[in-house]
Amino acid sequence: MRRTRSHWLLPLSVLVALLLGLLPLPAGLQPLRPYWLALVVAYWVIEDSGNAGLGFAFLAGLLGDLAFGGLLGEQALRLTIMAFILQRFRNQLRFFPMAQQALAIGGLLLNDRVVTAAIHVALGAPQLPWMFWLAPVLGMLLWAPLFVLLDALRLVRRVR
């Protein structure tokens, strides 16, 4: 048996993250929507830094801006900041136990919310509801299952 890398998984995972972000939710649950695109970008920056870096995060953010119809460049900025921090601490994060990794991702998602709030303040846009701050907790809880799923798909075993 040998392991082969699945090159189709990176673009497919970004597409699925975009689709999950577009999935309609009831108005009361909308602020709790996890930032799927950030979770997927975080996985790829941590696990495949050769193919996923700051440029990848910026392009994924631009796709998110276009798909979600927000301010052009906002998600690109947010994801690039997150990818920069992840690249800086990538070597440590890779060897953290899954619970510590999830806490670190939760911190990064919380930082993303702070950046979003700062952008809203700078532009004079209305602030988002308080439930908006709970979404990083949900993203933190989803990190382990998402990581395991993407890792299993990324490293497929083939018998030859």
Q: Which bin fits the share of residues in helices? A: 55-70%
What is the multimeric organization of the chains shown? single chain
The number of strands is 2
**Low-pLDDT windows of residues:** none
What's the helix-strand series?
EHHHHHHHE
Radius of gyration: 16 Å
Structural class: mainly alpha
Biggest sheet overview: 2 strands, antiparallel
Number of domains: 1
Distance between the termini: 6 Å
Fold-level CATH name: Arp2/3 complex 21 kDa subunit ARPC3
Using the coordinates above, name the CATH class: Mainly Alpha
User: What portion of residues belong to β-strands?
Assistant: 5-15%
Number of helices: 7
The strand line-up of the biggest sheet is 1-2
What CATH architecture would you give? Orthogonal Bundle
Shape: globular
**Average pLDDT number:** 91
Keywords: Cell inner membrane, Cell membrane, Cell shape, Membrane, Transmembrane, Transmembrane helix
Protein name: Rod shape-determining protein MreD
Membrane topology: Multi-pass membrane protein
Subcellular location: Cell inner membrane; Cell membrane
Chain-wise SSE layout:
Blueprint: E1 2-5, H1 9-22, H2 36-47, H3 54-68, H4 74-88, H5 90-93, H6 98-123, H7 135-154, E2 155-158
Helix pairs in contact: 1-2, 1-3, 2-4, 2-7, 3-4, 4-6, 6-7
Name the features.
single chain; 160 residues; mainly alpha; Arp2/3 complex 21 kDa subunit ARPC3; 2 strands; 5% strand
Task: Provide a short characterization of the protein structure.
Helices cover 66% and strands 5% of the residues.
What does this structure look like?
With 160 residues, the chain is mainly α. The protein has one domain: Orthogonal Bundle (Arp2/3 complex 21 kDa subunit ARPC3), CATH 1.10.1760. It has helices at 9-22, 36-47, 54-68, 74-88, 90-93, 98-123, 135-154; strands spanning 2-5, 155-158. It has a two-stranded antiparallel ribbon. Helix 1 (9-22) runs antiparallel to helix 2 (36-47). The longest helix has 26 residues, at 98-123.
